[in-house]
Amino acid sequence: MNKRSFMLGLMVVASSVLSACGSGDNEESAVESGNTITISLLHRYQESNIGKSPEDTAVLNGLKRFREDYPNIEIIEEQLQNEDYSIKAQALAAADDMPDVFIVPGSWMTNFVDNEIVLPLDEELDKRPEWRDGYRAGTLDAGTREGQIYGIPIAAGPTHLIYYNADLFGSIGYDQFPSSWPDLMDVGEKLAEKGINLFSYGDKSKGYAMSSWISALTDRINGPEWTESILNGDGAKFTDKGFIQGIGIMSELAKAGYLNKDLNSVDNDTMVNYYFEGRSAAFVSGIWSAMNIVNNAPDEIKASTRVAVFPGVENGLGNPLSSSGGAGVYYSVNSGVEAGEKLDAIMTMLEYMTGSDSAKLMAEVGGFPAYDPGDFDTGKLHPVALAAYEASAAADATKIFDLWFDASIVEVLNTGIQGVMAGSRTPEQLAEETQQAYETFLNQP
Amino acid sequence: MGKALRPKGWVLVAYLLPGLLIYSFVVLVPILAALRDSFYSWTGGPKKTYIGMGNYKEILQDDVFWHSFLNNVLMTAYGLIGQVGFGFVFALLLMSKMVKLKGLHRTMSYFPSTLAPVIIAFLWMLVYNYNYGLLNAGLTKLGLGALVQSWLDLTGPIVLLASIPLSWQNIGFFTLLMLAGLSSINKEVLEVAQLDGATGVRKAWYIIIPLAKPTLVVASLLCIANNMRGFEHIYALTGGGPGNSSSVMALYAYETSFLRFRYGYGSALAIAIITLTMLMILLSTLLLQRRNHSKGGA
User: Fold this and answer.
1) Could A115 and B46 be called an inter-chain contact, meaning their C-beta atoms sit closer than 8 Å?
2) What residue of B is the nearest CA neighbor of A97?
3) Among A32, A207, A411, B17, which lies 20 to 30 A Cα-Cα from A298?
């Protein structure tokens, strides 16, 4: 008796372990045989961010409206935090087990397209020309490979804006943001005398330097042609003078002591807090920081905050008013989804989440949507948010590296720049390493 | 054991089977899968290209990997001093008559072991913080303002700085381990030693350490294995930074696979980590055993 029940228990354990992998498929086919359509959705927008983040607010509002209008469509939604999302999505991609709809950052796109993980959406978008044509110029680009669109953008806008404290700049005799680098260094020196950093900087999570500094700086010096050439593998090199010079400018600021000393060990939130506390006179960040200032800055800081971009570089080939930017992340559809009812439902859902109504809402709460919202009520926007929005709309956006380069290159640059800012390696060494990763990528089988 | 009490062979196997099954699913299968993937150039999708030993050849020339390996070795060295060494000293103190409130000390020293690595990292970030950190505040109070640093931005001693929280967390565990080892030493031997005039450091050096050797060896091996596969603390505390200066092998393998999309190379790195760790443990076992033999012979 004892023996028998023991063996029985053992078999139950063994069979449950062995069958755990198989059970998912059965459930799915059972749902699909019915009339309701089920869409699985994995993204990094969260209920808890509604009201705080314009993107989350607009996307989740769109999803809510879609659910109300199409009650027969079941959406299995999973909301994850940014970093958790990256880990989970990539693990699922490697296991070829992606949900129907998911988010793809620009730097993953080449890899996902090459591996046939994402579905080309041109045909579906052609059926909805009004929606397709509503996107701002260039925002579909980083989701497009060889003429085919693989991703629907959500938010766009500059990743490089300078938020500065006009009162502090005024106190040392600058009534606006300096328009040349020598002037900027002069500001840095004068502020340092008062014990204030020119910029606060926080690159602990890696990636900040590249999206908010390097892309804009390199463009100032090298011009957009260089970026094009390097993206297409047309002969430009990271070891070219302009790239090294851009990195050099950053490390000079650090060496001169115009940035906070703990620049590599604090994150973006701390960086912004240093600005709020008056430890720094400015910080460089994307459009997303505008609402952070509006919501969280002390009143006097909020009132004196203005928006600018980096000054031009002498003999630079780029437009001194441009800012790095573009759409950062895209909604993509699993390549396993076939044309028909389900794909149709997915496209409608995406239109709800990223299209005209969502865009308008995103703009009204201080975001910068990829879809052109047209005229919207700017009355509710705080002057800082409005200034950031206007700077974004006026800027001639240059390509942000981390969206366009392959992740293997991005990662080397992200890691290496920390070393340069810490003073443990030179800009030349970083350029060399990045070039090496670039060549490895180009030669990949 | 009496024959009547001894279970039959197949019963033993049946008892072991569930554990073995689970173990193979969560440990052996992934390792074998990684071994297979390590021969491919694979960026994460259905397409894989067989490149033979290509990934392993690359590892041999990969400076970052070897730098990470060195960091692991450094961390192990710090760990042996900070975890096993201090653990042993603490255990000796707890055994001695000088220390009062032994229960409290034991609980307090074990407490950090119960915390998650992420929390440990967060606590120590607060200690090391440039503007608000305990360390800098303490230095300023002591009139050593010149030493105030942004500690986690230093590329030089960063591995040491990251190893301190690790030791802080694990010291309680090793202290308990040592206490267990020490309490098995025959009291009479200690008393005789004391009658012979061996006290304090002498007693520890000539009597306790040789007798506690088996415990010390086990603790050292555990510590080596722990530090060679270290990941969470570094990931949460510095992220391997600044740059690669505090990178460890597991973190590098993770970044290669999940941030650079080089799953094939990442798998090769994982296999390299297993191989190197086993090698380290084998070497240290040989070393520790040989010492035992030579001592025994003398």
Assistant:
1) yes
2) B45
3) A207
Tell me what ipTM this predicted complex has. Answer: 0.76
Residues A57/A361, Cβ–Cβ less than 8 Å? yes
Rounded to 10°, the helix B249-258/B263-297 angle is 170
Output the DSSP codes for A183-197.
HHHHHHHHHHHTT-E
B interface test, pick of A83, A265, A411 with most B CB neighbours within 10 Å: A265
Whether residue A93 lies within 8 A of chain B, CB to CB, comes out as yes
As averages over each run of 10 residues, the pLDDT of chain A (445 residues) reads 50 45 39 69 91 90 94 93 85 88 88 90 91 87 88 88 94 92 94 95 89 89 87 88 92 94 90 94 92 91 93 85 81 92 93 93 89 85 88 75 79 90 91 90 74
Chain A CB contacts of B145 under 8 Å are: none
Q: Sort out which chain A residues have CB atoms less than 8 A from B29's CB and list them.
A: none
CA dist B39 and A362 (Å) reads 47
Q: Which tokens go with B204?
A: 């520890």
Predicted TM-score of the model (pTM):
0.82
Q: Helical H runs in A133-211?
A: 166-171, 181-193, 208
Task: Decide if B14 and A7 are in contact by the 8 Å CB cutoff.
Answer: yes
What letter would DSSP give residue B116?
Answer: -
Contacts of B178 (CB under 8 A, 6+ apart): B87, B88, B90, B91, B92, B212, B215, B216, B219
B258 vs A contacts (CB less than 8 Å): 86-87, 90-91
